[in-house]
Structures are given as C-alpha cells and as structure tokens.
Amino acid sequence: MLDSDPQLVTIATYHSEPEFLLARARLESADIECFALDENMLRIAQWHSHVFGGIRLQVREDDAQDALAILRNTAPIGED
C-alpha cells in the first residue's frame, strides 16, 4: 500500500446482519464511506458468526471519530 493510501480502521463488529446494515446506512447517509470485512461469511454461516468474528465495519482513519460519534449518538429504531 502506498503512503498516500488511506488506512482503514475497524470501528465496530456486528454478529447480526440487520444491525450491521443499519449502522452502515447511518454512516453512508452522513457521506462517510464504509467497508465491510467478512460480510459474506455472516450470510453463509450466520449461526456461527462468533467463530468468524462477525462483520467488521471499517472506515478511513480520518473519518473514524465522526463515524463513532454518529453510531454512538444515533438512537436505535423504536426508542423515543
């Protein structure tokens, strides 16, 4: 990887696909590009996601603090 390439950092790990999809949608709606590691493993072996470590949600290092703030400060669906 070149020095000018942005570094990716894992900001969250999910063992539930719906939770992951919601988190990704929240970040994308804030124009934060995100990436998923092992997304297909959860689809293939959902009942064993703990073995594979779940889906790791990654963002560019420069966006990590903003992304974490969005995920922390956004209430889950159904909460008032």
Quick description:
This protein is of the alpha+beta class. 41% of the residues lie in helices and 21% in strands.
Rg: 13 Å
Shape: globular
Number of strands: 3
Nearest-integer average pLDDT:
80
Helix content: 40-55%
- The number of helical segments is 4
- Percentage of residues in strands: 15-25%
**Overall tally of domains:** 1
Distance between the termini: 45 Å
Order of helices and strands: EHEHHEH
Largest sheet: 3 strands, antiparallel
Secondary structural class: alpha+beta
Poorly predicted runs are none
Read across the widest sheet, the strand sequence of neighbours is: 1-3-2
Report on the architecture of this protein.
By secondary structure, the chain is an alpha+beta fold. The protein has one domain. Helices cover 41% and strands 21% of the residues. The protein has four helices and three strands; from the N terminus they run E-H-E-H-H-E-H. It has a three-stranded antiparallel β-sheet. The mean pLDDT is 80.
Key descriptive features of the protein:
80 residues; alpha+beta; three-stranded antiparallel β-sheet; 3 strands; 41% helix
Blueprint (SSEs and pairs):
Layout: E1 8-14, H1 17-29, E2 34-37, H2 39-44, H3 49-52, E3 55-60, H4 64-73
Antiparallel strand pairs: 1-3, 2-3
